[in-house]
Fold:
Amino acid sequence: MLASTLVTLALVAQDRVALRNAPRDSAAQHAVLWQGDALEVRGERMGYLQVWDHRRERAGWVQATSVRTTSLDAKEAPELLSVVRFLRDTPGAESLGIAYVAAYLRAAPAQSIGAEPFDALGTMAERLARRASAREANTTVSAHMEVATQYGVTFRNYNYDGTVRLCYDGEAFQRVLALSSDAHQRTRAALALTRPDCIDPAMTPLPRRQFDMWRAEVLDRIEPAALATLSAPEKNRLHMRRAGVWSAIAFQRARQGEDAQAAARRAIDSLAAVEKSELSDVDTTEYSDAAIRVGASRWAAELPTTNTARVHVVTEPGDPGQTCVLLLDASHDRSAPLARRCTWGVAWTASATVSRNSRAVALAVQPLESWRELWLFHQGAEGWSVDVLPPTASNPELGYVEFAGWVPGSTKMLMAREAREGERLRRSFEVLSLGTLTIEAKAGSPTGLPLFAKWQDAGWKRGTVSVR
Structure:
């Protein structure tokens, strides 16, 4: 009696399969089917299957050779899972693989279902989202996305500076974390759920902080015992992701006036744990991004110090949410500062450094979690002024610029910049003229500039991540 209720399912195995109104090649075409489309089989004639397409609510005929059939019987579950294993790492076959996962979940007894099909589902859904976000995405990829959504796979789209990025919502990976004891599966799930490029850019500060704390908790589910069983590349990816997440938490804590030192130290330690000799080309990109994130927040790891210089900076509250930086000396107190500028970000007073002639002061200011500027207070003929030096003139997602040393006996300052602009990483070491704020010399390495070799600041060399 049970066997008679089983449905024969046909999964479309090719792209652009015609659903026709009769079992012949010359018959009119009702619709175009794509790999992964699921059809209910209701008959067979002349090498064609008579089917019902539930997604389009339309009947028709398809060539039997263009589909793969299954009765969804429990006995077929192992075979379906074998196909899932094959398709899991096959680029371009994501929608078909997702269809087989859905068929397996319908056929297999509930008590026998483990984390493996969800691991495969999440992997294929994430890869499909990446394909859809790529510049070369086409009609085929869009059709595959539509097929995936019919199985309940949810994608979200975010607008990053005019570019739409599609991301899988991660439901399958959350199931993996709940079901699996396998360290490799759990690591893949944790990394997928904590991607920095799939965070809603419109998220406000409080929800973003809560989300980053959740990301840290997800990554911490990979305990030291499990971490020891991972391969070197897997360990590296976990360390890099932790570095990025904890650097964001450090910035958020500092922004709220809380102690951020522990979070910043954890970010720095995680970055230092990366084994660079085991980085692939793809991992090298993520390593650079993690380093920039850590570099942007690294001053949170330093304790504020009492500035005894003749010229020094202090902070005070400005408008709600703002911090104002005041430049003072023995003759100018808070009521009449030499210069004053306010920011919505974090002014890292521990970074303040004064030139030997006391005519310039450099200060690190971080307006965003992955973006740090350099404020330069300098004295001219008309008094003190302050200029903001950004990591780059454009508007990349990641970047920092930092003081690297004063050149004695001149009006020059050493700087280091690092920024991500699209797929390109820019890193440079520069000599800045304080009088004109122009770059007099630059190189891709400190060794390429004689002034860097002689006058780079010892504190900068000890703490920077730009030399790695």
About this structure: Residues 191-303 form one domain. The two ends are 69 Å apart (CA to CA).
